[in-house]
Design brief:
398 residues, Rossmann fold, alpha/beta
Length: 398
């Protein structure tokens, strides 16, 4: 059994919760008066067995390689792909992002880098001529570009999870795919820039569901056009990030193209998936973005009854099982922010920093803006560790 460090007894916990419910006292106040926090609380079911075959990989343990190959980041988000490529030895000389909140995080963590996006510019890749001119000012007008383009076009039109947030009888419940007026065609805008600048290699990431939305072969036709321009493009690959050291089940659709005369080999997956056990056994002292939600006593009373992997139906949150990969870290809606999972050991939702660790962001990376928007940034990102492993293969091929 795991030692219940700093946990109160179940009887004491039940009394505190009961008093809060009867007297309508905020739980955070009752805990503070006793010198307790939400991490002092526990579940009824609290068994602990060290997972077998546990291999922990983090970018915090890796040495960042010298920047040797220029790269341009499209749909940069909070910087997941950027980080992975930078650790592999790429120099992200420009990042293009449409969302100002994401741009703020990029600029905070990369003050010397060029960020093309609001409030100081336009990051809308649909504006081909404007973005091309801004990009040429950074990488030059020479063609081909002897660097790498990488990007993950917004996945919401192709994501099952993103659309199930809406009412079943509403038009948005079903995936809109390429018919999504705002985001459905952004993949092809990205491909336009590849044809325009002819980078030495390019990388594309999206949700696995995009494959099922390509009924008329639009993606294949677009990739065939790039092949005709001299790119070697292996068939798109669908991977689970959990087999690449990421402590999270996250299915992704990946494409790599090169004009070096030989295709890039994808990294070899691990034999076993990474579990999220160690994520919740590392200290959070002094960490940025670790502000936990102040749940009501009613909510905690429901959460504490859940077993590992079970869902609270009212709040639609799941208690994570530390012996398995985490469930997918999600971004949530454009207005409401991400909806995090429940901590495996304390009956509360996990913080932005804990989500960031599940996504394999370095602990030194800071997310700016309101907490809800921080969850969105983390959930939208490509896991940096997965990006790193792919970037290493691209670097090897170049």
């Amino acid at each position: 059994m795991k030692i219940l460090k700093n946990k109160i007894t179940l009887s004491s916990q039940e009394k505190i919760l009961g008093d809060c419910i009867r007297k309508e006292i905020p739980l955070i106040e009752a805990l503070s008066q006793k010198g307790l926090t939400y991490d002092s609380l526990r579940y009824y079911d609290y068994s602990d067995i060290l997972p077998q075959r546990e291999v922990i990989e983090t970018l915090d343990d890796k040495e960042k390689m010298p920047a040797a190959i220029p790269a341009v980041s499209f749909f940069s988000g909070a910087g997941g792909l950027n980080i992975g490529f930078e650790y592999a030895g790429f120099d992200n000389i420009a990042s293009i992002e449409f969302n100002e909140i994401f741009c703020n995080t990029l600029r905070h963590n990369n003050p010397s880098k060029t960020i093309i996006g609001p409030p100081y510019g336009n990051g809308d890749v649909r504006q081909h001529m404007e973005i091309s001119a801004l990009l040429e000012a950074v990488i030059g007008t020479g063609k081909p570009f002897e660097g790498v383009f990488h990007g993950g076009p917004p996945c919401q039109p192709f994501s099952i999870a993103a659309n199930q947030r809406f009412a079943k009888n509403g038009i948005k419940f079903k995936r809109q795919g390429f018919a999504d007026e705002e985001k459905g065609e952004l993949l092809f805008d990205y491909l336009w820039y590849i044809k325009q600048f002819m980078p030495r290699a390019f990388f594309i990431e999206n949700v696995a569901g995009i494959k099922n939305c390509d009924d008329d072969g639009k993606i294949k036709s677009a990739l065939d056009e790039l092949s005709a321009l001299g790119y070697d493009i292996p068939n798109p690959k669908i991977v689970n990030a959990a087999y690449f050291g990421v402590p999270q089940n996250r299915m992704r659709w990946l494409i790599v193209g090169t004009r070096t005369g030989k295709p890039i080999e994808f990294p070899i997956p691990n034999k076993y998936t990474a579990t999220c056990y160690e994520t919740f056994n590392r200290s959070l002292d002094g960490m940025k973005n670790h502000r936990t939600r102040e749940h009501t006593a009613e909510s905690v009373s429901r959460y504490m009854q859940l077993g590992y992997g079970n869902r609270d139906q009212l709040g639609r949150v799941d208690r994570l099982n530390p012996y398995l990969p985490s469930k997918t870290v999600i971004a949530g809606g454009a207005k409401g922010g991400g909806r995090s999972h429940l901590h495996p050991y304390s009956p509360r939702t996990i913080s932005v920093r804990e989500c960031a660790r599940l996504q394999t962001f370095p602990d030194s990376y800071v997310f700016t803006g309101a907490t809800a928007r921080q969850f969105t940034q983390v959930g939208n990102a490509v896991p940096p560790l997965l990006a790193y492993k792919i970037a290493m293969q691209i670097k090897k091929g170049l």
